[in-house]
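ZP: hey, is the zinc ion complex queued? I don't see it on the tracker
AM: it wasn't, my bad. submitting now with these inputs:
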Amino acid sequence: MEEKKIILEGIAETGFERIDKFNGRRTKSLASLYRKVLLNIGEDPCREGLIDTPERVAKAMQYLTHGYFIKPEEILGASRFHEDYQQMVIVKDIELYSLCEHHMVPFFGKAHVAYIPNGYITGLSKIARVVDAFARRLQVQERLTVQIRDCIQDVLNPVGVAVVIEAKHLCMVMRGVQKQNSVTTTSAFTGCFLNDNRTREEFIHMIGVKLH
Ligand SMILES: [Zn+2]
């Protein structure tokens, strides 16, 4: 498996070159804010267990939102190959971790992505990286689903794209309504997945998901 590295310099990335450094200025400024957060929730930021916490959280938060510095169109564009294959390509069960933009609490689950090539294919791992690039930002599941679909449609111009995401939202599980087992399913289609019921059903069947 490809080693997870982080991008965080935030400026001159080529779109998908990941580097393992955190932006020092941003880490410092986030850490000082998290120190205030600790105070405001009634903690003592000076007690032993919390001394390094603001800096750790600052780095974790930069990691969890590193998608802002990745350009998914470039990831796909850089590995676009001419190929006459015209059947459905499905990448299912792509692990997905994101943060809901309303509570900044995780939601996580799986993405299933399919497309039918129209002269061009891409590396399968690139599809997963596109999912990750959009997921590692503050998101709502609906927008995330559509952004993945549109990116693939725009760059590969396939006959159709299908994206289904199933996710659990900790903001529902840990707080609020506390519906522990609820899973949210969203879907977005283009082209033949939209116009041709049989194509869409074949995809739904292959990924084994019930669309509500
Ligand atoms: Zn939420």
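AM: back. Confidence is low (pLDDT under 50) at residues 1-19.
ZP: great, adding it to the tracker
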